[in-house]
Predict the structure.
Amino acid sequence: MRNWVFFIESEEECICPECKSGLKYRDKVLRIQRYRDSEPKWFAINRLKCTNES
């Protein structure tokens, strides 16, 4: 069985939906998508943090 991990990337500038400040990289989490009749797929998703300190 082969394990594949798909990395989600974007060229967009990410902004906080609440205060409209920029977001910076925090960490990465792995998520799995399971299917009935095929192998599951793994996704690496970046988590971001608001840069507004107030």
About this structure: Strands lie at 5-7, 23-33, 41-50. DSSP finds no helices and three strands in the chain. The first strand starts at residue 5 and ends at 7.
